[in-house]
């Protein structure tokens, strides 16, 4: 901050003229502080808002400092080279005045010609005044920039509202995905159960075939034992026949599609088939509602397709009442074409079904 900033009044942003000191310690131009009190109707300080019950006292030290600063500045400008000064483009004389009505630079002849009844001020005073205002605007812009960079410019209500939106939306996302996970888990269990049932069926067919072979061999073993116990003549007479029947070998097991698991039935287009089923629990709506446009007395469903009048929500106070009308906008707009919608009114509940 420059010396001129320190010597500038916070009200007029110009160098102090007849500065006075308030009880709170802040100084202002005498005329500026009285004008401020007259317009505001209170005797508060424009900076700290503290009420000043005593009359302001002259700040002699500050007044002397300002006079010294102005004298030094005047001498500095006087010492500048003549080529740095621009003469009046109309009369060629030195520019010494500034017209506040027309915002124009004037020489002495300009004032007599067309600005005799206008409010004018010395050039250096106009420069100081406007430079002070520009510096004040610069400080304000720098303060705004700093607050933006530090994050202090954010509205805490909006930040809290956004945080609550994130928390609530995250909760609903988890609920929706849990429904999908539950569906997938049930579908997985169903398909594994179907695979196990086919396995039991195939194994049962193999077991039944083996049981048949066991019965056949058991019959031949009994016949061999009975033949051995026959008398000699009967034994010799039946020997060849019994021996021919005893020659039995197990048939080779052939692999065929009927005896194996039908893998293609369980894996073929698995994801597509599951997706087809998921469409039954995952309906698509061409137009969904924008909850940010919902009035406080309206409640939008979790799938953003219907609106219900909610007394409970009416009683809730919201820091950010976005809309007051009983209207909810859709989140998708159309630039052309004809679009019609069937509106089903079910006891103050509205659902949009696109056609």
Automatic annotation (TrEMBL):
Domain of life: Eukaryota
Protein name, entry field: Tripartite motif containing 35-1 isoform X1
Source species: Danio rerio
Gene: trim35-1
């Amino acid at each position: 901050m420059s010396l001129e900033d320190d010597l500038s009044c916070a009200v007029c942003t110009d160098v102090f003229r007849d500065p006075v000191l308030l009880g709170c310690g802040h100084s202002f131009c005498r005329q500026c502080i009285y004008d401020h009190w007259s317009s505001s109707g209170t005797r508060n300080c424009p900076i700290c808002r503290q009420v000043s019950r005593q009359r302001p006292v002259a700040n002699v030290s500050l007044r002397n400092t300002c006079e010294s600063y102005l004298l030094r500045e005047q001498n500095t400008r006087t010492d500048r080279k003549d080529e740095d000064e621009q003469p009046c483009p109309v009369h060629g004389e030195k520019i010494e005045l500034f017209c506040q009505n027309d915002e124009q630079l004037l020489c002495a002849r300009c004032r007599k010609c067309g600005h005799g009844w206008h409010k004018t001020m010395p050039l250096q005073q106009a420069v100081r005044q406007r430079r002070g205002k520009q510096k004040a605007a610069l400080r304000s812009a720098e303060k705004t920039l700093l607050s933006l960079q530090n994050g202090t410019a954010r509205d805490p209500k909006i930040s809290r509202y956004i945080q609550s939106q994130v928390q609530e939306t995250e909760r609903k996302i988890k609920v929706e995905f849990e429904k999908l996970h539950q569906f997938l888990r049930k579908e997985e269990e169903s398909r594994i159960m179907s695979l196990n049932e086919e396995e039991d069926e195939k194994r049962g067919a193999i077991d039944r075939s083996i049981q048949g072979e066991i019965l056949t061999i058991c019959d031949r073993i009994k016949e061999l034992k009975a033949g051995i116990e026959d008398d000699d003549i009967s034994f010799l007479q039946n020997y060849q026949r019994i021996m021919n029947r005893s020659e039995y070998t197990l048939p080779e097991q052939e692999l065929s599609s009927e005896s194996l698991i039908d893998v293609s039935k369980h894996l073929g287009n698995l994801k597509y088939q599951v997706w087809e089923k998921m469409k039954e629990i995952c309906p698509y709506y061409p137009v969904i509602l924008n909850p940010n446009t919902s009035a406080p007395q309206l409640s939008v469903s979790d799938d953003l397709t219907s609106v219900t009048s909610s007394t409970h929500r009416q009683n809730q106070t919201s820091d950010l009442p976005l809309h007051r009308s009983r209207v909810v906008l859709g989140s998708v707009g159309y630039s052309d074409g004809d679009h019609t919608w069937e509106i089903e009114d079910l006891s103050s509940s509205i659902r949009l079904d696109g056609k």
